[in-house]
Amino acid sequence: MKYKVITISREFAAYGRTIAKRLAEELGLEWYDKDFVKKTAEESGFELEMIQNEGESLSQVDKWVDNIMATVHSGYNSSHDDIFLAQTRVVLELTEKPCIIVGRCANYILREAGIPSFDIFLYASTEARRQRACEMAELDGKHFDPEKDTAEIDKYIRKRDDHRRNYYKKYTGSDMGSCENYTICLDVGTLGVDRCVNILLELLKD
User: Fold this and answer.
1) Which of 17, 22, 77, 83 has the fewest CB atoms in 10 Å of its CB?
2) Which CATH code is given to the segment(s) 5-204?
3) Is the pTM of the predicted complex or chain greater than 0.85?
């Protein structure tokens, strides 16, 4: 492989975890998503639940509160800030060995550290993501019927996308999904998971 580290950024329910797992199996690499949360908890001392909620998500309200507190208190660090710093240390630690890292602004962190990486962005139309969103929503204790709850599912997807984009913007200064931040951007809805995996394997094995 040209690159020992692969990063995957993705829209919510764009099959990032699925594709990461497939690539890891084909390339014989470790991949980190849920395990990343555990490592960050060990590094930061924060509870797992807090990292799951704040480790890659920032609502407009959270953003507003953080900005107000930073203005009032010089040197203020929010829990989001502390978790991001812990995640940065974990990303850099993990890249000592070849691996795949899902999310966590890893592409930006590695670029700033001067570490070469193959950076992927996965996206798809809302329609293409609905079924997967229903499956993922169950992890949050929500239950949607893909045939009846279309409006609610779409609202949930937009909310999760917005929170993820807010987080990425705050800590990188760039827009998530902007092509200049990635080696390749793939429309999973149009291409399908299998074709995306094959395209990436062909590029990575050159």
Assistant:
1) 77
2) 3.40.50.300
3) yes
